[in-house]
């Protein structure tokens, strides 16, 4: 089988959906393929929000923001290893992009703030609803309305090229049959590689054996698809981990639980790290414990300090005991050692000095029953590195664009440098998805 269209988009997460809509709104034919049976990718899992400076919503709330501060915050978060041109473009386009999304049905009316931002610029739905699914629903409804040709359970297996110019892709249909789609422009929006443990470990051996918060389709196909083409890959070893993820279901426990007083205890009933050290240090310490994981332990007073914990409780994530000893028994840990550790920690809190690990913030003693615990281990969260692009969203090879090839979203590298700020992933994927979609559509109409 052999088909022809104007623009092909690989991957129907936030970046791919945005690109497909942008191209289709320019009046060209678009085929959007998605290898999973459902669309949305990792974008479906986004809970924080979407950062932007000077959106209409932000302005209407009287928030005083500036593009320059957004750029500064992002570069500081990325330890100044980001591609500054791309960050500037992202910040400059961010406000308009929020308006674009709202016009297409997204609810981003609530504006708050995530770590590393100096101004309230994290846009999210009202009523505490998760931003990712809201965005995916809105974009998917718009794509539907535009009659974008969406094909799920269809996997891109090869990007075709002739004399350095892209000619289309080869895919596998839901029944396993290969076919070719010819097009002048191809947009790679396949997401990251956080769910591909061997690939993660090959770029960063410290992450060997880590689980992931990512969906299964985050397997790094963008990397394998472009290998033969010899595209530029940048900052591949920059991979963000999160230290408190439940290993049995890959659900993330928010950092604020530790911030509000929870401690980490190993299977010998002992603390083993300053719980508030950086993500990489805490992650590594957990992996050195028996069973390569630990228990996050807290009491009712910590629970009462943080609404999110009720959610974990209601989902059945927490083990509960009326005393430290009862909790220890349920966890199969020595009662005596567990109790001694809690008593010891409480005395550190009382004297405001952690003599074991020098934790500097000791918000409260753990002495109000019931006591709670949840098993946690580090997991791969976001892959910052990836395919190098320029300001037109074109894929680079030896720093020069490959004609007809575009990329957007987590598959690309350079925007977040060595550390991505919460709320910056979504703005990245929609800004560069739109740019890639617009430019691919224009190219496909060139004579
Ligand atoms: P982003 O945030 O960059 O949009 P997502 O993870 O949200 O990334 O979306 C990427 C999507 O691409 C996922 O739905 C994933 O299943 C899909 N995908 C990955 N590899 C392929 C492939 N080879 N063919 C088709 N779709 C793919």
In short:
Its cofactor is FAD; FMN. Its EC number is 1.3.99.33. The chain has 447 residues and is an alpha/beta fold.
- How far apart are the first and last residues' alpha carbons, in Å? 26 Å
The level of helicity is 25-40%
Shape designation: elongated
What is the spatial order of strands in the main beta sheet?
7-3-2-11-21-20
**Main sheet record:** 6 strands, mixed
**Number of contiguous helices:** 14
Low-confidence stretches: none
Number of beta-strand segments: 21
Portion of residues in beta strands equals 15-25%
Q: What is the mean pLDDT?
A: 95
- Please give the radius of gyration in angstroms: 23 Å
SS-derived structural category: alpha/beta
GO molecular function: FMN binding; oxidoreductase activity, acting on the CH-CH group of donors
Keywords: FAD, Flavoprotein, Oxidoreductase
Family: Belongs to the FAD-dependent oxidoreductase 2 family. FRD/SDH subfamily.
Cofactor: FAD; FMN
List keywords for this structure.
447 residues; alpha/beta; binds adenosine-5'-diphosphate; 21 strands
What does the model show?
The chain has helices at residues 14-25, 56-60, 67-77, 84-103, 131-145, 197-203, 221-227, 256-259, 279-287, 300-305, 307-314, 324-331, 335-350, 424-445; strands spanning 2-4, 7-10, 30-33, 50-51, 110-112, 122-124, 149-151, 155-162, 165-172, 178-182, 185-188, 211-212, 233-234, 239-245, 263-265, 294-299, 319-321, 371-383, 386-387, 394-397, 400-407. The mean pLDDT is 95. α4 packs across α14 (424-445). It is of the alpha/beta class. The strands form 5 sheets. Strands 7-3-2-11-21-20 form a 6-stranded mixed beta sheet, covered by helices on one side. Strands 12, 14, 15, 16, 17 and 18 form a 6-stranded mixed beta sheet that branches. 50% of the residues are buried. Helix content is 34%, strand content 22%. Bound molecules: adenosine-5'-diphosphate. Adenosine-5'-diphosphate (ADP) is lined by residues 10-16, 33-36, 41-43, 155-156, 189-191, 217-218, 221, 409-411, 429.
